[in-house]
Amino acid sequence: MASACASSAITAVAISTPSSGQKNGSGGCFLSGRKLRVKKERAAIGGRSMGTTVCAVAEPDRPLWFPGSTPPPWLDGTLPGDFGFDPLGLGSDPESLRWNVQAELVHCRWAMLGAAGIFIPEFLTKIGVLNTPSWYSAGELEYFTDTTTLFIVELFFIGWAEGRRWADIIKPGCVNTDPIFPNNKLTGTDVGYPGGLWFDPLGWGTGSPQKIKDLRTKEIKNGRLAMLAVMGAWFQHIYTATGPIDNLFAHLADPGHATIFAVSLFITTTSYTNHSAFLFSYSLFLYYRLSPLSEKAKINNQITSCLG
């Protein structure tokens, strides 16, 4: 019996015995690792009935980050924004996967707020609608109180919110009751999606499961793009000492000369040290945020031992 395995770039023909044939269904392709759609047909050739099995590449049941790739078993497509991408196996442990999902979600939301705070005020200031300071120099301004007071207040409120979010991750649904007004309760919510009047006033989080998953996937995709945009704006400021909107207007005014190759990279020793220290500190922060709960205890013990 002849088996013809056709893919987009490779066609392989193998000869097998009838006893080794596979029934109609899906199998694995040795050459590409992709699932195959197997179909058995019989035809009369020279008065004899011959069995032929045709194997064609099966269409994927969901979009993948790389066409033809095989997603890991722990990424089965049920999560929003799951395209089967985990080359380092960070989600192989169920506890790590649960934590990383929530870590990515909250970083996506902060990045979208950060991107809006970078691009929108800078653009409106550029066209003369607003007169706001640049995002990279906002910390140098004087506000209604000193920075220490602002930091303590921010630490209190964000610590309270993060503590409740952490508790909801550990024990889903434990924070669905308003701590001040117990009559206000949230029902039917998922971790990371509290809903209600404050977080879903338009009721977009209700409806069919497919609709909800589509909206959550869009949020994750926009959040991932925002994280890249914020990082790009930050590196762009380091390289050009201006913001992305200023660079865009300069490039549109003189596309032939105002490019990344025309800007001379000049970073003093002090600024280089500051940026290196910031990158190191932020890397430690991300490692701590993305670490599962068991690793956090080890990190806390190491920090305590280092401090004596």
Protein architecture, described:
The chain has 308 residues and is an alpha+beta fold. It has two domains: 2-57, no CATH class; 94-266, Chlorophyll a/b binding protein domain (Chlorophyll a-b binding protein, Orthogonal Bundle), CATH 1.10.3460.10. It is 45% helix and 11% strand. The protein contains seven helices and five strands. The chain has helices at 94-126, 147-170, 196-199, 209-240, 244-253, 269-290, 293-306; strands at residues 2-6, 11-15, 25-28, 35-45, 48-57. Strands 2-1-5-4-3 form a five-stranded mixed β-sheet, with no helix packed on it. Strand 4 (35-45) and strand 5 (48-57) form a beta hairpin. The longest helix has 33 residues, at 94-126. The termini are far apart. The model is unreliable at 1-33 and 265-273 (pLDDT under 50).
What are its keywords?
single chain, alpha+beta, Chlorophyll a-b binding protein, 2 domains, 7 helices, 5 strands, extended
CATH architecture of the largest domain: Orthogonal Bundle
CATH superfamily of the largest domain: Chlorophyll a/b binding protein domain
Question: In whole angstroms, how far apart are the ends?
Answer: 74 Å
Task: Write down the overall mean pLDDT.
Answer: 76
CATH topology of the largest domain: Chlorophyll a-b binding protein
What is the H-and-E element order? EEEEEHHHHHHH
Derived from helix and strand composition plus strand pairing, the structural class reads: alpha+beta
How much β-strand is present in the residues?
A: 5-15%
User: Care to count the β-strands?
Assistant: 5
Low-pLDDT segments: 1-33, 265-273
Gyration radius from CA atoms, angstroms: 27 Å
Largest pleated sheet: 5 strands, mixed
Helix amount: 40-55%
> Would you state the CATH class of the largest domain?
Mainly Alpha
Lateral strand order in the biggest sheet:
2-1-5-4-3
Please count the helical segments.
Answer: 7
Shape: extended
Number of domains: 2
Main location: plastid
Family: Belongs to the light-harvesting chlorophyll a/b-binding (LHC) protein family.
Subcellular location: Plastid, Chloroplast thylakoid membrane
Protein name: Chlorophyll a-b binding protein, chloroplastic
